[in-house]
């Protein structure tokens, strides 16, 4: 089952192509159009407990990832997930089905419902074998507002919907878009993906759409896909507030957002959430790139009861919790590349500076790869040989360039003081 070809280092793991980490195999399960049924979540929780360590990660693409699956238990885990309809037909299909959906789409009255359109794109990705050659990290996202990014995360091709209007954006070109009708969105996405593949085949430096935009320009890529471009106003990219806690529009409650501390939940917690959600007559759960599970519930009493359960379980039941603005990788010993206990250090940072961290984004990375967050953060802590390099308004990849490091070789126990120092300087 798990030959060497299935365990490459550094790719995006799937269920059919797991990746070996410090605590065993990572088995990633992708939702369908950004949603899992409650019964599917229950199966995932049981599989994590029976065949893995019991720990489950919610990734920044809204996937659920079982940790600690062993070589001996892998086949049984896949059989359980396949019986619940959670496994794709092949590893190629699984790898290409990277579709991120606005988690509030269809439940927030202020947003367009783009979930059916996202499902149609998934069908195209599955049925058109030419698209299986797309890189494993290549993604498409659907926003129910005019902001193309979902949860502050950019993808290679982004669809933004504001009422009846649809705009297509490419990563790396916020000032250029293409206006299309709803019925033309699938054709536009397919065409852009095929243009990207053609460019990548002739230029090894083109690994993602951002590279293609830098090399050829967004207008040329749209034109090659026979799409007419329009200019879009360029606004400062501001991460939206995380959809945590009670979600409402005026007096109308439409859901609750339950955050996973640093993106992790254990099987027992997930089972309890599923049981209480079933009691509240819920059927589906939507996943957010901000590592939040969205439960669509429109009864205020039931919503509050579910949030109380989440709080009792040690999960995040408030949108104001500073941990929702923190991206933290698994760290050591879960990841072989990490040299620090990133989650433990992140929690110590919260304990030391909870109130002071409000309004800031924080990325704690166990190495320079920066898997947990692609974009810049106000404070990025990058582990190196058991210590951290602190970067202001940057990414972990800058840690290797000394000029970008604001403070080097910070001991894990001192990161609170280090971050506090810069917060105080910013306020003065």
- Strand content range: 15-25%
Sheet having the most strands: 6 strands, mixed
Q: What is the CATH top level name of the largest domain?
A: Alpha Beta
Tally the beta strands. 21
Uncertain segments of ≥5 residues (pLDDT<50)?
1-10
Going across the biggest sheet, name each strand in turn: 6-7-8-9-10-11
CATH architecture of the largest domain: 2-Layer Sandwich
Q: Roughly what percent helix? A: 25-40%
How many separate structural domains?
A: 3
**CATH topology value of the largest domain:** Sulfite Reductase Hemoprotein, domain 1
Structure commentary:
With 428 residues, this protein is α+β, with helices and mostly antiparallel strands. It folds into 3 domains: 11-241, Sulfite Reductase Hemoprotein, domain 1, CATH 3.30.413; 245-316, Sulfite Reductase Hemoprotein,Domain 2 (Sulfite Reductase Hemoprotein, domain 2); 324-427, Sulfite Reductase Hemoprotein, domain 1 (2-Layer Sandwich), CATH 3.30.413.10. 30% of the residues lie in helices and 25% in strands. It is built from 11 helices and 21 strands. The chain has helices at residues 38-51, 74-83, 91-96, 115-127, 185-202, 209-216, 218-224, 267-279, 300-312, 342-353, 415-427; strands spanning 19-21, 24-29, 35-37, 55-58, 64-69, 99-101, 140-143, 157-162, 165-170, 173-180, 230-231, 245-249, 252-259, 264-266, 284-288, 292-295, 326-328, 362-365, 377-384, 387-394, 405-410. The strands form 4 sheets. The protein has a 6-stranded mixed sheet. A 5-stranded antiparallel sheet has the order 1-2-5-4-14. The longest helix has 18 residues, at 185-202. It is globular and about 55 Å long.
């Amino acid at each position: 089952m798990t030959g060497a070809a299935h365990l490459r280092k550094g790719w995006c793991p799937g269920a059919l192509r797991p990746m070996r980490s410090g605590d065993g195999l990572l088995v990633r399960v992708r939702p369908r159009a950004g949603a899992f049924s409650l019964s599917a979540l229950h199966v995932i929780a049981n599989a994590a407990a029976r065949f893995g360590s019991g720990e489950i990660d919610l990734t920044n693409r809204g996937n659920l990832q079982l940790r600690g699956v062993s070589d001996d238990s892998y086949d049984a885990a896949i059989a359980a997930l396949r019986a619940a309809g959670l496994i794709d037909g092949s590893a190629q299909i699984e790898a290409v089905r990277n579709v991120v959906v606005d988690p509030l789409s269809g439940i927030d009255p202020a947003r367009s419902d783009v979930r059916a359109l996202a499902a149609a794109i998934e069908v195209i990705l599955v049925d058109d074998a030419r698209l299986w050659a797309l890189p494993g990290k290549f993604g498409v996202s659907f926003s129910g507002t005019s902001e193309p990014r979902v949860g502050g995360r950019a993808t290679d091709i982004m669809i933004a919907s504001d009422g009846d209007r649809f705009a297509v954006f490419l990563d790396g070109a916020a000032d250029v878009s293409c206006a299309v009708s709803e019925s033309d969105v699938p054709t536009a996405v397919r065409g852009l993906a095929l243009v990207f593949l053609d460019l990548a085949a002739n230029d090894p430096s083109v690994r993602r759409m951002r590279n293609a935009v830098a090399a050829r320009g967004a207008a040329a890529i749209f034109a090659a896909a026979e799409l007419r471009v329009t200019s879009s106003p360029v606004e400062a990219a501001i991460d939206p507030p995380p959809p945590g806690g009670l979600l409402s529009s005026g007096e109308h409650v439409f859901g609750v957002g339950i955050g996973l501390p640093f993106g992790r939940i254990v099987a027992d917690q997930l089972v309890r959430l599923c049981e209480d959600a079933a009691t509240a007559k819920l059927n589906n759960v939507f996943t957010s790139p901000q590592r939040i599970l969205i439960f669509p519930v429109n009864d205020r009493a039931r919503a509050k009861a579910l949030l109380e359960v989440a709080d009792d379980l040690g999960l995040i039941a408030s949108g104001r919790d500073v941990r929702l603005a923190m991206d933290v990788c698994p760290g050591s010993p879960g990841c072989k590349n990490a040299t620090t206990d990133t989650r433990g250090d992140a929690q110590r940072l919260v304990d030391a500076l909870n109130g002071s961290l409000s309004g800031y984004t924080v990325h704690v990375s166990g190495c320079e790869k920066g898997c947990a967050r692609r974009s810049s953060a106000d404070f990025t802590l990058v582990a190196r040989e058991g210590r951290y390099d602190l970067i202001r308004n940057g990414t972990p990849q800058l840690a290797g360039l000394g000029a970008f490091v604001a403070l080097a070789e910070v001991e894990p126990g001192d990161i609170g003081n280090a971050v506090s120092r810069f917060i105080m300087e910013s306020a003065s």
